[in-house]
């Protein structure tokens, strides 16, 4: 069997042989880019080259980039485990041209790699192009010999790629793999570009980088048209290993097996295997995120990490695992990935300590929170209602440390929804209260400082208290 490591290596050497410089994956925490939560594509580390703000001594690059899509424009957190192909953490293989080759060569390289190097049969392959990109359409026609039944023109949603709300972007062409009729969904018009089911596996996106989008949404032409591509490693591995899910590949199956050992339960590829898949996925993302310097916290990147860990812990609980367990999966993640990402090995002990600590913290409130949520659900059902109120979701968040998406997961399992807007309002109200209290504290601090310098701390202290309470601020 061809391994994931073989495929990654084949990709790198294929493009090295064609004049590309191998560049190591950048960190999951984007350097100097506040517009981006986490590195979400191979092109991120080259953004300034595309924008013409930086030059390098090479015009072609090849990478295997670690990516996390769990927040911001590209957020797959809710999809993980439901589809066979979406992860929070995944690897994107990519070849890049910085003002060097353009559409024609990018198309030819991709086709050669898939059909000659990996020897994929063209029968299952389909192409999509941006609706009015006649040039790309013609190159695909010439390169593949396909006609309009296998080269589809799609709109902006599918075939215009943007990194985030701002930044480099452009029309794109994508290569898809048809897994066959047995993977069709129940939609009557199940088809490429029409539905999102696992039958139609998007494997490779070739982005024709031509524009920069500014914060007002205005597109300007980049100094030089460039190429940015992204081939999902887990997906191409699933095809090459002839399995029907990324979770069956040698990248993720060993992690599923770990969950089996920890829970003493058997994995099933169907619906009941959902918690196993989530845990396997989340073990990778939190191990990688912490080793790149992210720590659990209450906002920003750290809060996304906290949500990921807590979500895994709750799914662990649903498999009957009552103690800290997630940290026990990191050595396996390291073992599977260390050849490509040696940084994991150096940080393993630290990573495990952070995960264990976060798990233990959450274990303290998880059981009580679960009791509350069970009561809430019971009473909703008795009343024939279908939505957990924003106030209740906020209470679970505030008192029991349940991130909103965790409450949503639980609600979904019971065919209920959560009033997200109500949650946000409750959150805002609490923030406003906290802000006001802080203002009072600041006024108080000023009064204290003033009193100290005036040398009559006691008297002023008392006056200050009085005057503040008179204004109704405390
Ligand atoms: P999808 O439509 O399947 O969500 P995408 O269009 O969002 O994918 P791109 O932004 O085009 O993905 O990224 C390039 C490639 O990276 C995809 O073609 C796919 O192979 C891979 N990829 C994207 N998102 C994920 C993910 N969450 N998990 C695993 N691989 C992914
Ligand atoms: Mg997507
Ligand atoms: Mg897509
Ligand atoms: Mg895409």
Give me a quick take on this structure:
With 474 residues, this protein is an alpha+beta fold. It has 15 helices and 13 strands. The site of adenosine-5'-triphosphate has 16 residues, from β5, β10, β11 and α6.
Q: Could you explain how this protein is built, in words?
A:
Helix 3 packs parallel to helix 4, helix 9 crosses helix 11 and helix 10 crosses helix 11. A hairpin with a 2-residue loop joins strand 3 and strand 4. The protein has 15 helices and 13 strands. Strands 1, 2, 5, 6, 7, 8, 9, 10 and 11 form a nine-stranded mixed β-sheet that branches. It has a two-stranded antiparallel ribbon with strand order 3-4. The chain has 474 residues and is α+β, with helices and mostly antiparallel strands. The C terminus is likely disordered. One magnesium ion binds next to strand 10.
Work out the helix count: 15
Q: Classify the beta-strand content into a percent band.
A: 15-25%
Radius of gyration: 26 Å
Main structural class = alpha+beta
Question: Helix proportion of residues, in percent?
Answer: 40-55%
Q: Mean of the pLDDT scores? A: 92
Unreliable spans: 455-474
What is the CATH class designation of the largest domain?
A: Alpha Beta
Oligomer: single chain
- The total tally of domains equals 3
Distance linking N and C termini: 70 Å
Characterize the overall form: globular
Q: Which architecture name of the largest domain does CATH use? A: 2-Layer Sandwich
Order of helices and strands: HEHEEEEHEHEHEEEEHHHHHHEHHEHH
- CATH homologous group name of the largest domain: Bira Bifunctional Protein, Domain 2
| CATH fold node name of the largest domain | BirA Bifunctional Protein, domain 2
The count of strands amounts to: 13
- Report the biggest beta sheet as strand number plus sense, adding barrel if it closes: 9 strands, mixed
Ligand identities: adenosine-5'-triphosphate, magnesium ion
């Amino acid at each position: 069997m061809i391994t994931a490591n073989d495929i990654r290596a084949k990709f790198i050497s294929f493009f090295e042989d064609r004049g590309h410089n191998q560049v190591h994956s950048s960190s999951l925490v984007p350097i100097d880019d506040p517009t981006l939560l986490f590195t979400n594509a191979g092109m991120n580390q080259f953004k300034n080259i595309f924008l013409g703000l930086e030059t390098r001594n090479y015009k072609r690059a090849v990478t295997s980039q670690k990516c996390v899509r769990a927040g911001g424009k590209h957020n797959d957190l809710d999809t993980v485990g439901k589809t066979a192909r979406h992860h929070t953490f995944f690897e994107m293989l990519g070849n890049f041209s910085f003002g060097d080759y353009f559409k024609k060569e990018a198309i030819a390289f991709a086709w050669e790699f898939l059909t000659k190097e990996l020897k994929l049969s063209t029968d299952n392959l389909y192409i999509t192009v941006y609706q009015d990109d006649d040039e790309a359409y013609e190159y695909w026609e010439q390169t593949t010999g396909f006609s309009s039944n296998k080269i589809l023109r799609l709109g902006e949603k599918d075939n215009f790629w943007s990194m985030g709300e701002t930044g480099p972007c452009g029309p794109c062409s994508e290569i898809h793999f048809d897994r066959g009729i047995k993977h069709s969904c129940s939609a009557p018009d199940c088809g490429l570009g029409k539905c999102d089911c696992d039958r139609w596996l998007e494997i490779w996106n070739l982005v024709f980088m031509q524009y920069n989008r500014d914060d007002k949404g205005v597109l300007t032409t980049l100094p030089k048209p460039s190429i940015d591509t992204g081939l999902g490693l887990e997906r191409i591995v699933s095809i090459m290993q002839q399995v029907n899910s990324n979770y069956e590949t040698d990248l993720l199956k060993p992690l599923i097996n770990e969950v089996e050992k920890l829970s003493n339960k058997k994995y099933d590829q169907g619906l009941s295997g959902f918690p196993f898949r989530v845990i396997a996925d989340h073990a990778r993302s939190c191990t990688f995120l912490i080793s790149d310097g992210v720590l659990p916290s209450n906002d920003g990147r750290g809060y996304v990490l906290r949500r990921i860990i807590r979500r895994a812990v709750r799914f662990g609980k649903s498999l009957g695992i009552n103690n800290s367990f997630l940290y026990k999966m990191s050595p396996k993640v390291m073992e599977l990935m260390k050849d490509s990402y040696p940084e994991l090995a150096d940080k393993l002990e630290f990573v495990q300590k952070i995960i264990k600590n976060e798990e233990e913290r959450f274990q303290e409130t998880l059981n009580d929170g679960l009791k509350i949520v069970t009561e809430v659900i019971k009473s909703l059902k008795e009343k024939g209602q279908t939505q957990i109120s924003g106030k209740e979701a906020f209470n679970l968040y505030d008192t029991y440390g349940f991130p909103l998406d965790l409450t949503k997961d639980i609600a979904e399992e019971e065919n209920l929804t959560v009033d997200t807007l109500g949650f946000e309002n409750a959150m805002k109200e609490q923030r406003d209260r906290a802000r006001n209290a802080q203002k009072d504290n600041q006024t108080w601090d000023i009064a204290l400082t003033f009193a100290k310098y005036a040398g009559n701390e006691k008297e002023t202290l008392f006056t200050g208290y009085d005057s503040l309470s008179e204004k109704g601020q405390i």
